[in-house]
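Supplementary Text 2. Reproducibility record for the structural model of the 206-residue chain.

All settings were left at their defaults, and a single model was retained for analysis rather than an ensemble. We include the record here because the model underlies the residue-level annotations in Supplementary Table 4.
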Amino acid sequence: MSLTTPATVPPGWYPDPSGERQWRVWTGSAWSAMTRSYGPAPEAARVFEALPLINELNRVARYGVVGVLGGLGLYVSVLSHWPGSAHPVPTWFAASAMALALTLFFVGSATYAFAARELVGHWSLSALVPLVNVEVVNAQLAQRLGASSTRRVVSDAVLLLIFVLQFHQDPWLGVAPVLVALGQSLWLRTYLEQILGGTRSSSHAT
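Retained model, structure tokens:
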């Protein structure tokens, strides 16, 4: 198989086009960095099966966390300084910032929706509802990492609720969505490393 593999070739394990005596994953459009030596490698096979989930979680890590929590933070901040309030911002700025906040929020929510579908295994109403899908992803990650999903969901929900209700009086509560974002990024990175750990070891061994 040449390095210019046609895009019509289905995803799967194929002989490494570099000539090395190993298998390499073809994603359907490009060669992956994932390899394994000839012979059975169940860990690598499981990672390949999890590629759709890995892709969706990577999108959440890159765009979802910033989109949802950044958009929510900006939205609440703009409302706190809406024209007519005690400390208003110009109307043009408020309108532009609100449009940006809603765009970020709904784009981020879309990445969480697809990640929730992959984690649960099917589409559900909870995956389609903004913020609820965030908690679905959080609960699934906590469960798969052996932690309490209830504690994880409740702690994030309480922090965000306090931020939304009290930010106009206590601006320092803007730290709440930042803490939630850091926590979610950590859980995403930990779970992705858990999935990919076996493959990295296999790749280094070859």
